[in-house]
UniProtKB/TrEMBL annotation:
Gene name tied to this protein: crgA
InterPro entries associated with the record: CrgA
Region annotation Disordered: where it falls in the sequence: 1-26
Membrane-crossing residue ranges in chain numbering: 32-54, 66-83
Protein name as it appears in the record: Cell division protein CrgA
Keywords: Cell cycle, Cell division, Cell membrane, Membrane, Transmembrane, Transmembrane helix
GO biological process annotation, one example: cell division
Membrane topology, record value: Multi-pass membrane protein
């Protein structure tokens, strides 16, 4: 039985006129306020929730009721959004 022909793959050479727009060397570092404000929001959110639970839902703002949970978790989600932009 005859042997089948072996296919030769062409070697890929990237085009020289197309270059990536961003490289690791051209990225600027994040400003100092970004990680500072993200950590501040995390501490604020956790502190808000701890005070809310330890005060038996009387503090920080009694009129908000269970919306105090939304304030605490919202601050933590805001910090996650900021940290996703950190380089």
């Amino acid at each position: 039985m005859p042997k089948s022909q072996v296919r030769k793959k062409k070697v890929y050479t990237p085009p020289t006129d197309v270059r990536p727009t961003t490289t690791a060397a051209t990225r600027k570092p994040s400003p100092l306020w970004l990680p500072v404000s993200a950590v501040s929001l995390i501490v604020f959110g956790i502190g808000w929730l701890v005070v809310y639970y330890l005060s038996e839902q009387e503090y920080p703002v009694a009129e908000l009721g269970y919306w105090n949970l939304a304030v605490g978790f919202g601050a933590m989600v805001g910090s996650l959004i900021l940290l996703s932009r950190w380089r």
